[in-house]
Amino acid sequence: MANETNTSSTKWPILGIWTVDGQQETHPGILYTEGERAYLKLFLAIEDSEKSFLQGTIEDHPHLIPFRPPNRFTVLGETKRSGRVTLLDCAQTSNSGTLHLQSAKSYIELTLLVSQAWTGNVFVDYTTKCKELSFAATGLHNVLATSRVEMEWLARSTPERHSETHDLHVLTGANQAFLVFRNEEPSAEIEASGKKYKITFSTLVQECRSSTMGVSFGTEDSISVETEAGATIPELMAVSYQLEQFLSLLCIGPFRGEGIKIALDPSKKVELVWSLGREPRNETLTRMPHQILVGIGQHPGLAVSALKAWFGANDARRLARWLIFDSLFKETSSTAKFLAVAQAWEIIGRENVHATPYEKQQFQKACGAARHALEASLGAEAATRLSHLLQSSNQKAFADLVRGVISKIPALAVQVLCSDVNDFVTALVDARNVLTHMQGRKNLPIEKASYLSLFLTYKLIVLFCIYECAAIGLPLDNLPTMLTNNEMARAAAHGLPDY
Fold it and tell me: Which residues of the chain have pLDDT under 50?
């Protein structure tokens, strides 16, 4: 059992008394993390007068039927350390135990894989109606900051020198002050899956006092998603996931919200302490002002149009964003990563194309004539296969799609990342074809294509982020300094190797 840290303040492991939702029996157990998984180990003592444990039929025991695969279920726990714990979408992975012959009892140890774990003062499920979700954006103060704190020395005016802080010094008697400047908070009302949400970026200024550590001031940046009508946990999590992608593209880095909290009402709250696929990261993403594309906190008026455009995207464009977002979390280069990023470019490329190269009716007529000619020469089977290939060819080529996207990216970014667009597109198309079919060419063997894909992946990711920010109407005033200082942009600026 690994006693690992998580994105919340929860201490692992968690001991408690657990029950399957809808059942009466309670069992002691321990919730723990191991590698990239969270497990609940339950300890059951059940009457087994039929000695089913020895006969190998213990899983048919009435007390174990709810746990039998492929059942998936919710487990509720009462714990001293973490309050009420809800484990969603659990599944049994293994069981073991012993039979006590004198008492005719079987002592079973069940191990359950946990998909999500929530702690708080109330139990929840996937249908629970909630009012608000919030999470901390640790490390992105320069992206989200809406308030600032400045220190000012206070002094009296003298005949020789006028002090602008004279009145404040006289009023308070203080010699030093910390001034908090609150600006407009970026916010927007958006619609997702037929429900309306209000998204707010905020900066909380707080003071901490300790008898041993003294007094400290700090800021905490967070994002909240509110809905008056109420939304389920999956619906709120889907909105927060889109916001994580939005922020990742603004700073061109793998951002993940921390300390996700959900409020059913002001007195009932839960916090996400584990979710399959959101394993704890070793480092929190941090960004300096010169490493980001856009500081949304500095442009609160643009939040409405930008977020509405972001959430108004169709499923195809969201898929393209997800492919880029997912690649940001992969620290090593691979063929799969390159092909995923290239696929994202094909998706957004087709989003920009609203007309086919050939008039549809004329093209279909030509395809029919070609099919008859092929059938006469090669037979029906070959004609069917070749005509299907021909009918799918009334679309722009991948190279044309890439050029179309690049044409909408600021010239400075194009000059730095792919100064010769034709050479860049040719290299991209060649590497993609070789690695898709895993068949090298005379001038581009598979090994060289894999090496070339490393450089192309960085360039495609950075160019995509710039393109998306421009597409949703965000200003790119910070583009020159970002290209020079962002580590991924610096990697993308390297020239392509010759081949």
Answer: 1-7
